[in-house]
Amino acid sequence: MQAVHRDIYDVALVGMKVIATVPTDPKQARHCGERENERKQQPDGARGDLPAGCLLGCMLGRSLYKHLFDIVACAVMVNPLRVLFFGTSHFAVPTLRCLSESGHELLAVYTQPDRPAGRGRKLRPSPVAMAARELGLPVEQPERGRKAEVVERLRGYAPDVVVLAAYGLLIPQAALDVPPLGWLNVHPSLLPLYRGASPVVAPILQGDTETGVTIFLMRAGLDNGPVLSQTRTPIGADETAGELEARLARLGASQLVETLSAWSKGELEPKEQDYDRATYAPKLTKEEALLDWSDSAEQLARRVRAYNPWPVAYTYWQGERLRILRGEPVDGEAGHEPGEVYLLASNRLPVVACGEGALALREVQLAGARAVDGTSFVAGHAGFVGARLGSAGEPG
Predict the structure, then answer these.
(1) Which of 310, 309, 308, 314 is nearest to 359 (CA)?
(2) What is the CA 163 to chain-centroid distance, rounded?
(3) Does residue 305 register a pLDDT over 80?
(4) Mean pLDDT over all residues of the chain?
(5) pLDDT tens digits along 75-124
(6) pTM, two decimal places
(7) How far apart are CA 87 and CA 189, in angstroms?
(8) Cα gap 254→213, rounded to integer Å
(9) pLDDT in tens, 123-172
């Protein structure tokens, strides 16, 4: 942003903050409006000026705050916005790519440091780090954002706005205060539902038929800032968390670019979340992916979908962990105990008896082996049909 436009921008922002603290008096605004109409009816030389206080009342009556925001928007859009991006996981990559093609000035990309991964535990960069380098963008990887030097370096970029998607580290208030247009967070749920670490998994576990993406302004607290925009989308009956997340990532990327444009032009009014409706989606653990066959087939099928691709639903067979990648609830046959494997008479598909109904095994994987469909697994593993699969941590 050129210096003159930056000056206009800064002055307007100060005005916005001042006006936000001044109470609006409707009576004064109405009185000033009447005075202004009388003044316009006078000859040019006899009109005079309205008192300063009356002028302020008129301006307040016409939403001075909005006018100042328009000034900010004009100053910003003379040149592209200066944008910093914060993100780490695959979910954030489409938003990064969209921003890089949006015409705004992408200053740098912040992501988590390289982490050990895979069997060899070698350091591996995040998906966002790899995408940023592919795009030729500077990459910042601070271990923690609370250090003063990290905040100072961020301030040195002089961003107009910061966009964050699935970053995974806390942002200190000092950093939140840096960009004039704030921090825009791309969150894959319909806030205030499912704040927290696993917002894509949670609606599948709950049996919701709809989810979406929320763009909100960040502030101190967990996903509790005012909402700028929301987009809704149905959840497919067989859709896994991985498939849903990929779809929400694409949806959120386009939504972010549209929302950023509207926000910078002063066309959006932030709306506070309904805190009475807030729910939380805690971080997932491997242990909760163990299937308990006394649950209903419908519940277990939702867990199979929700835990794919991580941590992946599992059970035990002959002391080995058996991962259930895809399953389908079906009507069960009488005479089978929960956890018992049998073949459906209709299509010879392997199913597992549940507390209510049965779970058809569409795709499974033994530790160290490749994933196969249920029918192929039965063909290659004698003794599987008729076995009792483990539950509650007890091998079958």
Answers:
(1) 314
(2) 11
(3) yes
(4) 85
(5) 444 469 999 999 999 999 999 999 999 999 999 999 999 999 877 888 99
(6) 0.79
(7) 17
(8) 11
(9) 999 999 999 999 999 999 998 767 789 999 999 999 999 999 999 999 99
Residues 252 and 350 in one domain: no
User: How far is it, in rounded angstroms, from Cα 374 to Cα 178?
Assistant: 54
Instruction: State the Cα–Cα distance between residues 197 and 223, nearest whole angstrom.
Output: 10
Integer Cα distance of 194 and 188 in angstroms: 9
Same domain, 44 and 111: no
As a three-state string, the secondary structure of the chain is CCHHHHHHHHHHHHHHHHHCCCCCCHHHHHHHHHHHHHHHCCCHHHCCCCCHHHHHHHHHHCCHHHHHHHHHHHHHHCCCCEEEEEECCHHHHHHHHHHHCCCCEEEEEECCCCEEECCCCEEECCHHHHHHHHCCCCEECCCCCCCHHHHHHHHHCCCCEEEEECCCCCCCHHHHCCCCCCEEEEECCCCCCCEECCCCHHHHHHCCCEEEEEEEECCCCCCCCCEEEEEEEECCCCCCHHHHHHHHHHHHHHHHHHHHHHHHCCCCCCECCCHHHCCEECCCCCHHHECCCCCEHHHHHHHHHHCCCCCCCEEEECCEEEEEEEEEEECCCCCCCCCEEEECCCCCCEEEECCECEEEEEEEEECCCCCEEHHHHHHHCCCCCCCECCECCECC
Is 394 exposed, middle or buried (CB count within 10 Å of its CB: 0-12, 13-18, 19+)?
exposed
145 and 223 fall within a common domain: yes
CA atoms of 336 and 358, how far apart (whole Å):
10
Q: Please give the residue range of the domain that contains residue 328.
A: 287-380
Please, what sign has the CA dihedral across residues 103, 200, 322, 285?
positive
The answer to the question of residue 175 being in a domain is: yes
Any domain includes 187: yes
